[in-house]
């Protein structure tokens, strides 16, 4: 035994880093994946686009060009105009400002709430479980649309952040039930027992062992939630509850354009393309994150 | 040269003269094509054997050695993308290349199979009897329903299902694992096949049930006169049950011969190591087990030459030149010949591989091993395991690590969704007492469902138990506050059974081992140093720290689990079946490690196991549990040599010993039936329903067993105690 000890002692000094850092490794791996870089770049590009886009054309947000109603793309209107003569390019990029924030924040919040509620309910069981699931059931049966409509009236303008909170508050329930089920099966794994028997407090077990082991599901859920939130906001806006004029959102632009998708494709195609790129970018980052967190994923094995 | 010799030996042995073998497999190769640029998996590489009527052939090997795949290939049960070459002859008729429809007329009629997992072998939506009758009808369409039904009932009776008439209508879920395996055997026997292939038929079962099933297979052989191919990894089962055996390694047979030849005169280092690695229940002081270093090679990236060479203790440079053929002892080409052949560039000629009945070995040094009569102890480096320092002081004088007094854990059975009513109680643990002293190993043994794991969870939880008391290092857990409990966790850690699920797959090894240290707020520098020290202690390398659990083999993962448990320098280690999920050769290394650690660090172990052989090897004291109670406790040697409780006697008697002569000379006590439900234990003595002694007692004595629950009472004036009214110390080994 003594010989092996000395040999590793000798090897330890120069070669071995003091302690491998998990967070650092994951970040390094994330930044080493082309997909993540592309995704991040796309996202940054969209953000830049959202704020500089409206300034690039000569048209103001909401301004109508009565000489060109339902016009095809032209040098004057890069992406054509809609039926009231608004410039589609200006409208879509201006709408992107709010939608980017709403989409990303709602996704983050709702998945976060779902993960915490589901994991705590599943891990602790008994009364915690029943109380949390009762709240989830309640949120499911409440007419969320009506509540959102009523509440959003009260916050008036500039309340887009409240809108984000409300949207998130009504979209976490189904995922949380899924997470709860998975937690119940994970809870009986031996490494969870081991952590408990070494004295790790419960909330740390959930954050350190249970949630990382469901990261694939959480990431997929958050990615889907981005587009769901953007579209979900639309229906509110449609009834005049969500983003209020003169503010505009991408969802509203898409919803307006969808009626003309067959006759005047440009009104629909361009804003939709922006949404697709946004979701794609989020997807790419999510994929990279999942691979970095999951040592068994294919791309890691190289 | 070899073809000549084989013909000669065939003539000389004369055993197969007039009769053609029932099943003859020649030079069977199975390859699974790799998809998407992955390498092909060569699962089976050149297997040949033949079985005659009434003969039992054992195929032995560790997981991944190709033993199951080779028999699946013979049955034609492999998926279409498997490439199979060679020849499989049933009564001289070639089976390979037959289409599925033609195979179907033979499967179940001439050749049948018993699978490992009795839980998934039966369709859950049909009754057991109907499934049996179907097996009969499929091959005799003219038999008629009534006749098939009659035959099915007779078969159920034959395999020992009580009340076969009534049980015909039962669904599979109403049967226990052992009974389902009986039904599977009945199905395999249904059409009097000539060959029955048994793929690990007892691996999923408890020892007492295993004994029943092995008995039944013997009956099946006598009843049908069929040849049996027994595939197993358990060298004990093979010893008493089979006539000839084939040892497989990395998809290739490496040794073949009669059971006695191989057990007493193995000439292949792998087989020798395997036999030396098995803990022996029948030996008092076995010494350290023979560890085989490394792990079996990947079947898609085999090393050149002999696949065992990287793990072999007596490897020569010539071993990696060419893969040795399976030849009779002493007929291997010399090293000079191998080198010459290699230089000449001639491809190694495929020797006429057929089963000739003489012992044959695939090792170029087999002649040397035979001449020198080497044993595993001679060729393998055996680790020295120092004595436990605490063992010098008397047991009573050593400090107490753990004391459990009349511990009780009952689960309520409830009904109803909203208002839960209590409809019954599961007596999982029902009053058990034991204590563990410093430097001592207490083993808790019993069949599945006897409450041993529940006991562990109760102890590890450090909560106030439902009943009784648990004290760790002299401190009663019921009075502990949160901070005290947290501090006490440092002294007591656990190693789990399943190396797959005991490590968080998302964490690198460093973080896994560092977790207990960080939880107990050790400084970062100390943590880092300690993790590398621990890796070294359990025989892993420093560079392993950044890898993830999935990149390790089962044995290595178990070592990581041990390192994590040792991180806080506990004084008591709880081991929950730490080796039962590992292959024999890997298991030996872990057992040796545990023994070494105990001696070096002065640890005490609470060792939970169902494998009595490992227990005999590692434990100082043993407690036998049955239905939530300890039925016998005492010094390991005393309990194993002179068990007093009928259950201990039956348990010890049921375990096959890896020694053919001893095994054939033994008579097994075969218990009836299954473990009763812990929700409804029998009155009085809980074991009386299956007790072999109970039936021999007179009526007033039986009355006593039925009404009064026996208490643990000393049986030899010393440490040994048994809970039986009529305890009597007997030798069963």
From TrEMBL, chain A:
Q: Where in the cell is it found?
A: Cell inner membrane; Cell membrane
**Keywords assigned:** Cell inner membrane, Cell membrane, Membrane, Transmembrane, Transmembrane helix, Transport
Transmembrane: present as a keyword of the record? yes
Membrane-spanning parts: 36-56, 100-124, 131-152, 158-179, 217-241, 265-286
Membrane topology classification:
Multi-pass membrane protein
What is one GO biological process annotated to this record?
transmembrane transport
Cellular component terms per the entry's GO annotation: plasma membrane
Q: Which Pfam families match?
A: BPD_transp_1
In this chain the ABC transmembrane type-1 domain maps to 100-286
The record ties this protein, via InterPro entries, to: BP-dependent_transpt_permease, MetI-like, MetI-like_sf
State the family named in the UniProt similarity comment for this chain.
Answer: Belongs to the binding-protein-dependent transport system permease family.
Q: What is this protein called?
A: Peptide/nickel transport system permease protein
The organism of origin for this protein: Nocardiopsis flavescens
TrEMBL record, chain B:
InterPro entries named in the record: AAA+_ATPase, ABC_transp_ATP-bind, ABC_transporter-like_ATP-bd, ABC_transporter-like_CS, Oligopep_ABC_C, P-loop_NTPase
The segment(s) forming the ABC transporter domain are 25-275, 402-652
Q: Which organism is it from?
A: Nocardiopsis flavescens
Name the domain of life.
Answer: Bacteria
Q: Where is the composition biased (Polar residues)?
A: 1-11
- Residue ranges of the region described as Disordered: 1-20
GO MF terms here are: ATP binding; ATP hydrolysis activity
Kindly provide the name given to this protein in its UniProt entry.
Answer: Peptide/nickel transport system ATP-binding protein
Which PROSITE patterns does the annotation name?
ABC_TRANSPORTER_1, ABC_TRANSPORTER_2
Q: Which Pfam families match?
A: ABC_tran (PF00005), oligo_HPY (PF08352)
The family line of this record is: Belongs to the ABC transporter superfamily.
Keyword annotations for this protein? ATP-binding, Nucleotide-binding, Transport
GO biological process annotation, one example: transmembrane transport
